[in-house]
């Protein structure tokens, strides 16, 4: 035991960043299992961020404990398997509730329930097996229990067990419940099977977990969220309505841009923190507002385009049909971007990116989840640093 500890110690070219112990092993960066880990990522969201493995023969405790915090209702938290993904386990959130999916031998089960966890508060989760049952405890109270019995399964006593955070090591097609894997959340103080082996990092750089957060979508001037307008159900009568809330005086850059399929910019909203103005562009018209309102709403109708400000919905600007001909038709096959300015028809890259926190984004009256975007390069879809 002592020798093993020394060996692990030698493998770690230890440097301390906060509580995260980092080092290198076989050319891969490593972190300790109790590090503070942000689960979101910019690349393939199905790929794990960090992973580790242990020999089953070494495992004395079949329980893992960690703390978890998020405002995101859906995404993958933790994955484990044995026999190269023959048997596997996935813990995720769906609609805010914990969801466990397990495949063991010829048995596949999913179970969901317990308390909602996406309240932005740190929760302690314990996952373990007790005989034929897999048990999830939340904040030391019973959360989920699932019993499994099969004639075919036999106890596995050798081979490896693998663990992963922020993605899967099995094919996503094997899952019973469909999921959007992206998770804007953090894990800390992990004790994984009570083993102290380090975790390998699959990515060059892990994103930062902010100490304090509030609900919202945070843009770090690195990109935008892109949608096809066809997903928003735009009809001739009610048109398209986009509502944005937040402290606009703390924002800088493009809030919203809308473009026709022909590559014509139909409308744009931009915040400028130097002049303290909000710039409104509708077709060829340009206007400005002071940035001290808390909510902006823009509605594209067949006969006009309206920009409303604050909660009392006073009309800031209204543009009639002559200035906005055929807008609804042009909108329908177009694109909509939050947090950046769309370029021409082929451009998926954008420019003039936003810095700041949009507390609420509503389209056609519904809160929009940026994880459903065609392309999402906001820094975090469900939380803003405070
Ligand atoms: C795990 O087991 C394999 C053989 O089954 C062995 O070669 C390897 O050294 C073991 N690893 C550890 C960390 O004990
Ligand atoms: C976990 O490991 C520690 C030290 O490595 C040991 O003292 C403790 O008994 C273990 N707990 C369990 C449940 O195996
Ligand atoms: C979005 O729209 C573009 C152009 O209209 C189209 O090529 C693309 O397939 C659409 N994507 C989705 C996911 O609907
Ligand atoms: C918005 O931000 C400004 C500048 O930081 C601050 O002075 C103001 O109090 C904030 N407004 C609200 C309503 O929080
Ligand atoms: C305006 O926003 C930019 C981008 O975030 C920031 O660098 C700058 O400090 C801000 N300026 C003021 C006056 O707040």
UniProtKB/TrEMBL annotation:
Transmembrane segments: none annotated. It is found in: Secreted. The keyword Signal applies. Coiled coil: none annotated. One of its GO terms (molecular function) is steroid binding. Residues 38-209 form the Laminin G domain. GO terms for cellular component: extracellular region. SMART domains: LamG (SM00282). Keywords: Disulfide bond, Glycoprotein, Lipid-binding, Secreted, Signal, Steroid-binding. Its main location: secreted. PANTHER family: LAMININ G-LIKE DOMAIN-CONTAINING PROTEIN, SEX HORMONE-BINDING GLOBULIN. Homodimer. Functions as an androgen transport protein, but may also be involved in receptor mediated processes. Each dimer binds one molecule of steroid. Specific for 5-alpha-dihydrotestosterone, testosterone, and 17-beta-estradiol. Regulates the plasma metabolic clearance rate of steroid hormones by controlling their plasma concentration. This is Sex hormone-binding globulin.
């Amino acid at each position: 035991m002592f020798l093993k500890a020394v060996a692990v110690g030698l493998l770690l070219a230890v440097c301390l960043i906060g509580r995260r112990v980092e080092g290198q092993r076989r050319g891969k960066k490593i972190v300790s299992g109790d590090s503070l880990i942000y689960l979101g990522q910019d690349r393939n969201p199905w790929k794990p961020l960090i992973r580790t493995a242990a020999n089953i023969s070494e495992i004395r405790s079949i329980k893992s404990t960690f703390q978890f915090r998020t405002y995101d209702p859906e995404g993958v938290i933790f994955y484990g398997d044995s026999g190269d993904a023959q048997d596997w386990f996935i813990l995720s959130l769906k609609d805010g509730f914990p969801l466990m999916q397990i495949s063991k031998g010829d048995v596949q089960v999913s179970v969901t329930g317990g308390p909602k966890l996406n309240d932005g508060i740190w929760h302690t989760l314990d996952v373990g097996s007790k005989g034929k049952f897999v048990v999830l405890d939340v904040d030391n109270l019973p959360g989920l229990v699932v019993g499994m019995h099969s004639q075919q399964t036999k106890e596995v006593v050798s081979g490896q067990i693998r663990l992963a955070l922020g993605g899967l090591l099995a094919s996503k097609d094997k899952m019973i419940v469909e999921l959007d894997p992206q998770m804007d959340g953090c894990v800390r103080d992990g004790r994984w099977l009570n083993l102290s082996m380090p975790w390998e990092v699959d990515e060059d750089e892990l994103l930062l977990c902010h100490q304090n957060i509030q609900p919202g979508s945070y843009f770090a001037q690195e990109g935008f969220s892109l949608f096809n307008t066809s997903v928003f159900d735009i009809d001739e009568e009610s048109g398209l309505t986009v509502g944005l809330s937040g402290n606009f005086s703390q924002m800088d850059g493009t809030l919203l841009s809308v473009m026709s399929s022909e590559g014509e910019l139909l409308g744009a909203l931009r915040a400028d923190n130097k002049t303290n103005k909000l710039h409104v562009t509708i077709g060829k018209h340009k206007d400005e507002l002071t940035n001290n309102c808390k909510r902006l709403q823009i509605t594209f109708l067949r006969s006009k385009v309206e920009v409303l400000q604050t909660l009392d919905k006073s009309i800031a600007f209204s543009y009639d049909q002559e200035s906005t001909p055929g807008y609804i038709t042009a909108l329908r096959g177009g694109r909509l971007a939050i947090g950046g300015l769309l370029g021409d028809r082929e451009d998926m890259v954008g420019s003039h990116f936003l810095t700041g926190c949009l507390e609420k984004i509503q389209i056609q009256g519904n809160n929009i989840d940026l994880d459903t975007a065609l392309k999402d390069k906001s820094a975090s879809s469900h939380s803003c640093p405070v």
